[in-house]
Specification:
Shape: elongated
Strand content: 15-25%
Largest sheet: 2 strands, antiparallel
Structural class: alpha+beta
Distance between the termini: 20 Å
Helix content: 25-40%
Radius of gyration: 19 Å
Number of strands: 4
Strand order of the largest sheet: 1-2
Oligomer: single chain
Length: about 100
């Protein structure tokens, strides 16, 4: 059983705002040439921390897919934090549990 994961609903915001990061970097708020780059770096930093710590910093929806249904003695991995809202099975058809 090989699980794959996909973020289906990204975080609504980042833990550090663009304005806060520009203030930290001492970039004037009216200088916008690098705003996209700075925003991308904030996102990349959050994703790196999440990968390194194996914890999500911001609420998001993640879909886990399995290449087959687990056997009777194989556990399905659940998130350490957060909650499971839906379980869908697609054998001969979709069944919502």
């Amino acid at each position: 059983m090989i699980p794959t994961y996909e973020v289906t609903t990204a975080p609504a915001s980042e833990p550090v705002s663009l304005a806060d990061m520009k203030a930290y970097l001492r970039i004037e708020s009216d200088v916008t040439a690098d705003d996209d780059l700075i925003s991308d770096l904030i996102t990349e930093a959050r994703e790196w921390v999440e990968d390194y710590t194996e914890q999500k910093l911001i609420t998001q929806t993640i879909t886990q897919s399995l290449d087959r249904w687990p056997g009777s003695r194989e556990p399905i991995e659940l998130p350490q934090e957060g909650r499971v809202s839906d379980v869908l099975y697609s054998g001969k058809g979709w069944v919502e549990l």
